[in-house]
Design brief:
Elements lengths: L9 H9 L3 H16 L3 H18 L6 H10 L2 H8 L4 H20 L2
Amino acid sequence: MVAREVTLLPRHWDWLAAQPGGASQVLRRLVDQARRADEGAGDVKAARERTYRFMRVVAGDLAGYEEAIRALFAGDRAGLDARMAGWPADIRDHALALLDMDIRPAAAAP
């Protein structure tokens, strides 16, 4: 374990003090719950950001770019595929590979 300082409002300390197990145990449990609830969401966001950065630099002047970006951030894969259909295959394929890098393995997991 690593000891670090945590700054909370008095009402937060009061609530923690009333919980069984003490503040450290409660904070560890809350962090673990938040990590489980967010599992995969960070991967999707990172994949979208990575794909966006590539598309902005390489495909920014291509037809349908703005619509493709909207579809990317809306999570509309069919719309993204449709907007990129006329793009050069190597650009389209690389953008989709960047997007799928973290998303597909997470979706395939049980």
